[in-house]
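This section describes the prediction task in plain terms. A model, or a person checking by hand, is given the sequence of a single protein chain and must write out its three-dimensional structure as a string of tokens. No templates, partner chains or ligands are provided. The sample shown here is typical of the held-out split.
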Amino acid sequence: MKKILILYRELAGYFVACLNHLCDQYDTEAVLVAYPVHKDAPFRFKLSERITLLQRNELRQEDLTKLCSDPSFDFIFSGGWSDVAYLKALKHRQAPALLGFDNQWNGSVKHHLSSLYGRMRIKPLFEYAFVPGSLQELFAKKLGFSPNHIITGAYSCDVPTFSIIAENRLNKPDTGIKRLVYTGRYAEEKFISELWRVFASLRPSEAKNWELHCAGTGPLWETRAQTDGIIHHGFMQPEALAGLMQTGDAFILPSTFEPWGVVVHEFAAAGYPMILSSNVGASEAFLKHGENGYMFRSGDAQDLKEKLCSLFSKDHHQLVDMGRKSTELAKKITPDTWAKSLHKLM
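The expected answer:
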């Protein structure tokens, strides 16, 4: 049996699904240090019996150092580098360490300076990097990780669970009314206010047979658009969200800042056509423009409008065909590929 220490920030359902799979299917025990859940997304999680959860806010620096210096661990996985206490503790590690992150390399002066700092202060603490896509892989190289010490596929949704939703959705009859689904925080970087405005402008004509269903909460909740055809569900636990996903017809994520976006993988696995902004990192893995959806220029409301019109022009059978293409793309990354990557390193 292998034993792994994980130093994490806020838990998410996709990470729990992957970690549960690693522990239950690959004979692994995990000690998981994590932050309390975010107030805008108070998810409830079910952890494997092989996982011991420790609350980050209850641990002192000496507690973290003691964990990292424990020789019983075969491997240490740190989610990011923003917690200084984690980094200090890792200086005393007795096992190889893996750095997971989703920062995209953009070639800016800030990133060049960050890479220089990272080479001196962060890279010496880690032997491996675990990243979701190509832009993050480039960042890892800039930090000094050699190509054979960089593993991609760092994020995966619970593909088997969402595949069941796809089976049900893609075989349902045409009901006439279509649902475009958004799920995420109500925040400026999600471009959601512009989405509401553009959708409302299309409602009398191109979108007359469509509804926009939004699940989430956040700073823009009080100023949310309350108009015909836009339905707000508030924050939803995974079981409730799964119920909404059973009834939808297309997915949209219009973010101006989205380093990856596991929610894209979730809706792809659930068989959804999708519209994504060009700043959504997960588009490189799960969107084929014109095949299973459309990409619009980030922050460009007119281009968003044009892509929505393209989607709304599709009939039921065309939407189903696009959804089936999404399910094929979703199978490239799974909790099992994630778990195999870590188990191989251990």
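For orientation: The chain has a mean pLDDT of 96.
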